[in-house]
Amino acid sequence: MLKKLRVALAVIFWVGITLLLLDFTGALHHYLGWMAKVQFLPAVLAVNVGVIVALALLTLIFGRVYCSVICPLGVFQDGISHIGTKKSKAQYKYKKELKWLRYGVWAVFVVVFILGIQAAVALLAPYSAYGRIVQNLFQPLYIWGNNALAWVTERIGTYTFYPQEVWLRSIPTFIIAVVTLVVIVVLSFKGGRTYCNSICPVGTTLSFLSRFSAFRPVIDTEKCKHCKACEHMCKAQCISISKEEQKIDYSRCVDCFNCIDSCKFGALKYRFAWGAAGKSAQNPSAEGRRAFIAGTALMAGTLAAKTASAQGKKTDGGLADILPKQAPERETPLTPPGSVSVKDFYRRCTACQLCVAECPNNVLRPSTDLEHIMQPEMSYEKGYCKADCTRCSEVCPTGAIRKITAQEKTQYHIGTAHVNRELCITETGTNCGKCAQMCPAGAILMVENGDMGNMRPTVSEEVCIGCGACEQYCPVRPISAITVNGKEVHV
Amino acid sequence: MKRRDFIKITGAAAAAAALPACGEKSTSAPVAEEEKMVLRENPNNSDKVSLLGFGCMRWPMIEKDGARVIDQEAVNEMVDYALAHGVNYFDTSPAYLMGQSEKAAGDALSRHPRESYYIATKLSNFGDRSTEASIQMYHDSFEQLHTDYFDYYLLHSIGRGGAKAFNQRYVENGMMDFLLKEKAAGRIRNLGFSFHGSQSDFDYLISLHDNGTYHWDFCQIEMNYVDWAHADGVRNCNANYLYAELEKRHIPIVIMEPLLGGRLANVPAEIARQMKEREPDKSIASWAFRFCGTYPGVMCALSGMTNMEPLKDNLNTFGHFKPLTEEELDFLERMATQMKEYPLVNCTDCKYCMPCPWGLDIPGTFQHYNKAITEGTYAQNKQQKHYHKLKNQYLMSYDKAVPSLRQADRCISCGECLPHCPQSIAIPRELRRIARYVEDLREDRL
Fold it and tell me: Which residues of A touch B126 (CB under 8 A)?
């Protein structure tokens, strides 16, 4: 019964968050956005005290149900291990806690978190990992599916679906997403919750509370016949059954209740057991120091794996070639309206890719810059930041992009446009002014171009909001003659 | 000439065209008559020209080795079929189809006896108008068309810019003198011009004929039931004026754009309904061709046929030719008035504006827009029935017809295209209008 309830809730959460990450229409975040906001790390980054206290209480009362129900990566692993154990008919066996790894990673995580190295945080955090897997690997499939439906509906004349472009936003982030998925699948296929109990820093954090939780699965040693049915069912591999000892490591138990259903003798009950401290609780500090050093080395190696991302006779008819646009060098990166400053944005962002998945104008993409790898940045080769769109600010669960209205958006100056006179075609006497025509802020003034007899664009710096309409519509290619540089502070 | 006087002449001409007089209210089922192409005689030299001429500006293009080239096989097939069914006038230019039209016409036609067809080509010196380049262009046309004489040779698209433009392209560089010598030598049998411009531009060119400076053997004008009396009057001139002036001087008339680049083959549904009510089994296009053929001063009406279907349809129209009655002419005039109420762009897809230096597909954008207006499949406002469907349909078909980087919103208004448009369309302004419509549609602001 408890298991069924757990599975039902888990499926609801998992489907909800996955749809949220897949959705490109902007129709779902209104209903599902809260599911991202109750994730542990985003709540911490957003300093969302209500959610943090609620999650802590939840864990103190019921154990790590967060890991079994709310965490999408956890539920995803349950799905994989369900397939894995069915296929191989494997049974779980009690494994000792990998303390060195577990607390080592946790210590590293805490240090990088305090230092604000968000790229490293994003690499380990479960919600970020799941976000990048879905956005990079599953959203393209979702959109292709949509495009196939668009193809079909167009033919039957109903036009219900509208095709979208699929494009690779960042090669390094894509590679990291692939590696993350492979690691998760390999670990969970036969190993159940190995990742959650030896790597996941959120799991470890919650374990400090769950070992004191009020309700927990308890073995009635009188009734237990040492059949090991529960041990074989335990994905967390935290139940140890022998004649001498029957124990559960509550720091690792994720309260999936598989064991409860498995016991034929009614020896396992999920019940109130306040005060019976977990037997495996230990002081992790000693291992932590050593682990920190090893962990840092590991991380440095991973980050170094970042690959460079390169970014006579007049006749009638025919089409001139159009070169694809390339991103210009930007001294300061562009971060979305709603982020108060570049620093604040990168300090709070957990790189979950939700805003990237959401951006309807193809502006947001994961950075390839080593310092901010996987965290989003803006660029205008495929579109620009439209005045009435605030979708990234609505979905961001961490407060890196604050929720703003279209009205408030006009107060955010995320960057300033500059004209490169060497590239601008008005310097050769051609009539243009596309940038001025497209500018929604009226920040581009066309002025007399000396003796050339035409007009040339100039930028009114304080009026420019940095939306990139000018850069996107500039006819000069591959690098636009007018480009936007980011501003450190936006309001 | 008053139209009523004119109709009387038409009646006589129709009878002269050897058409079996059929009672209008005849109830007997039409017996399948033998197809017979109408021939019109050139009064100057007794050329028997088919009333349907083949315009070589819209031949099918295919992708070959990464380049757009004319589908020669399809051209050969159409030319053979047209010749076999009495079409004997072929009109091309060194500028058409990225410069490939003349050679394709020459390759197809030279497989037949030279005396079985008339060739019309042009001095299309739009770019380099120097004497050397113009003479080079003239000589190249012989080679491309595999011939040593032209039956009809045209000064390509003159009128706009008046005396000044005409003098620059043909007088100051000595080309008029040159061409007159060529005519005397027999290498040009008929010398004329194709016209786009205002009434005063035309008056100037015709005054040269009247005062004996030049003799125009023929003239090519844009004529159809919309342009007959609905030209804007500022940059373009009503065809009824041009026709009357030429007719008065017995100058044979060749007609271009009888279908306005296909727009008169696909008219708005309400207009189509009224046409089909009268002629349920005749194509919409047939009305436009019958309009041209009704006027006896017309020697030939050109149709830029892209494939066999319009060719067969036109052969049917001209093979069983039935001139329009006065009542039918009134009807077409009403249809033209109705058509002017639709926000169509006056583009005939001639592609003279192309290539746009910034990569836009100008005619593609206009064609797509016009098609949606004509077919009534454009979304007008959110309250409209099926708004969402029409919106997606428009946007999806737009993206398919014109890649997004070549669409209207990319126009920078540099104005390069403006002097090339024979219809004098304010291209950047029209593109801006369409761009605004599309943006409003995307953002649901309609």
Answer: 314
